[in-house]
Structure formats: structure tokens, C-alpha cells
Amino acid sequence: MTFFWRLAPWLTRLLLLAAATLFFLIGLKYLSAPVENAGADAIILGSVMAISRVRVAFGAFPLSLSLILLGSLGPRKRVLGGLAVLATTIAVVTAVRLAGIVLDGPAEEAIKLLRVEAVLLALSVAAIFLERARPQGG
Question: What are the residue ranges spanned by the domains of the chain?
Fold first, then answer.
């Protein structure tokens, strides 16, 4: 087995770990200070229910995704499932971001995030192919 194929299982897991960390930090940010973080994007939360919705949508969902990705770091079958979850999530996020840019206009921050999301999507899809092509013994 070549050095590349010995390294491959760690590369895919590293991607999952990096994405899990990213989503964990996003979730934690909105769980801990939803009003301040929403306000940074000029989102005004005018009720307790609005604050609760931001905590759930921007906090709980990314945190849940991070836990799912962390849970997929074990056996090979779970890694492939985690990569599929990551690729699907990022594909949807990227599509919605693109739709927002088309419908709302190209805000500088949206373009910057779109670039990051596109890279993460490409890496996720590449990692799926890498994991599927990896020799069975590895």
C-alpha cells in the first residue's frame, strides 16, 4: 500500500473534524450571544421568541451537525456517511447562498462565504471519492 493510501483515511477524518469544529463554533456563537451576533449583521431581534428562534436555527442546528460529524469519525462506514452528510449540507447551503446572491444582490460578505462553502463542498465531494476508492484493507 502506498504512502498516499495510508494517509487517505486520516485526510478524510481531518476534513470531518475541521467541519465539525467549524459548525461547533458557529453553533456556540449563536447559543451564547444570539442578540449580539445577529446584531452584527444588522438583524434586529424584537421579541423573546425571535431570540429563541435565532438560538435554535443558528445555534442548535450547527451544533447538532457538528455532533453528527464527530460521531462519524470512527469506522470506515461511518466516515463515508459523515462525508455524505457534510457534502449534502454544504451543497444545500451553497445553493441557498447562490439564490440569495441572485435574489438579494452580491453582498461582499456573501461572496466571501460562498467561496469558503464552494471549497468545503469540493473537498467533501473529493473526500467521498477518495474514501470510496481507498483499498479495503486500509
Answer: 3-133
